[in-house]
Amino acid sequence: MGLPIVAIIGRPNVGKSTLVNRLAGEQTAIVHDEPGVTRDRTYLPAYWNDREYLVVDTGGLVFNDDTEFLPLIRQQALAALAEASAAIFVVNGQTGPNSADEEIAEWLRQQPVPVLLAVNKCESPEQGIIQAAEFWELGLGEPYPISAIHGNGTGELLDELIKYIPPVSEVPETNEIKVAIVGRPNVGKSSLLNAFVGAERAIVSPISGTTRDAIDTTIERDGQQYRLIDTAGIRKKKSIEYGTEFFSINRAFKAIRRADVVLLVIDALDGVTEQDQKLAGRIIEEGRACIVVVNKWDAIEKDSHTIYEYERNLQERLHFTDWASTIFVSALTGQRVEKILELVVEAATEHKRRVSTSVINEVLEEAVRWHSPPTSRGGRQGKIYYGTQVTTQPPTIALFVNDAKRFNDNYRRYIERQFRQQLGFKGTPIRLFWRSKKIRDVESGSVNRATRV
Question: How far apart are CA 356 and CA 383, in angstroms?
């Protein structure tokens, strides 16, 4: 059984995302002084006393207006409310009730979910009581004056909220794999998420920049749980202005960092762009496993040579991620979407894999036998004493050598290729640390004088 859900509802720019951050105890939901910043629904874990729950941020509700994203935002808010154990209706105490609040209140009264009324922006506790009193007219029971920014009054609100949240027994550890979906704007990331879920989990629009928050969704296939993280489209740095998009992209980079596997979504119509290459570099820099997902494959005119030509182009443009699996899909039709999860499991397993020291040294001995380390101009040859894996996620191997400076880039790449050919590590980057070490340290077994270079 999952955690109970609390939906945060209200019109635009009343401080819903600020309240979500307050309840979750972290600055995760995007907060910016601009109506309509939140569009999809974003889930964050929260707790109060002995109760745990998920708080879900939703877009600002506006009825009687079907322009741009507003109908889709209403759809997301409805979906959040349908799965919630309780809802918090947030209003602006500084402006007082208005017609938009009254419309939402009337709609909430028709829902079967218990609703608490939070009167936000009541920075002064004394003045807040007066501000909140105006909202009795909405007919939703006692209005609670709060300040989401400063935390005033949130304790009283939460004391009432947990009456509607059932106790949750200790949640056992799961075998969950965290999967971030990243790419340039409008390559089909949200469509891919919806194809996995089988529902309109994320707002999909031909307008670039529709997704703003990093949206978490949990699915299960054959007993394996996946946490899918949809992210905002990442444009070139010079094209980004400070504001909503700036925060969105920072969330996307954080999503890469906390993922086990990253799906790098490429638009089949555009091919691999310079920005795609930079994103691939960022994934490697963060040490994440990766799968290259070429989306919109249904829109490509094909013959018997098309896929081979496309694969060759991918290898040329993304040669530094040649260890990553590639799959051609259509999020629109669902073609091969489910096969992505098979590759995710494979990549996640390799990302966490640990190899014994004896096996690593067998590979090194074989590699050195076929290709000796280079010799410097002074006639001194590089020597590899031994290697050992020091960590996982990504697999990281320390190589202890006589002098790391004697091993040029070509030889270092050769050793990495040998590890991949002999040990696999499909779908994950590997890191090699070359450590200079004096001979007497090797003979004594000491590693205290090893230095990383």
Answer: 21
Alpha-carbon distances, residue 392 vs 169, 357, 364, 395, 420 (angstroms): 31, 14, 19, 4, 15
- Asked if residues 209 and 203 have their Cβ atoms less than 8 Å apart, the reply is no
Give me the sheet containing 115-120, strands edge to edge. Answer: 42-48, 51-57, 5-9, 86-92, 115-120, 143-145
Distance from chain centroid for Cα 296: 22
Main-chain dihedrals φ then ψ at residue 63, nearest 5 degrees: -90, 165
* Amino acid in position 358: S
Tokens (6 digits) for 185: 């704007």
CB-count burial class (<10 Å; 0-12, 13-18, 19+) for 395: buried
Is 180 in a helix, a strand, or coil?
strand
Average pLDDT over residues 341-365: 95
The single-letter DSSP state of residue 65 is -
CB 117 within 8 A of CB 39: no
- Looking at the DSSP bridge assignments, the partners of residue 61 are none
pLDDT digits (tens, 9 = 90+) for 194-253: 888 875 544 333 433 333 444 577 788 888 888 888 776 454 445 444 434 344 456 667
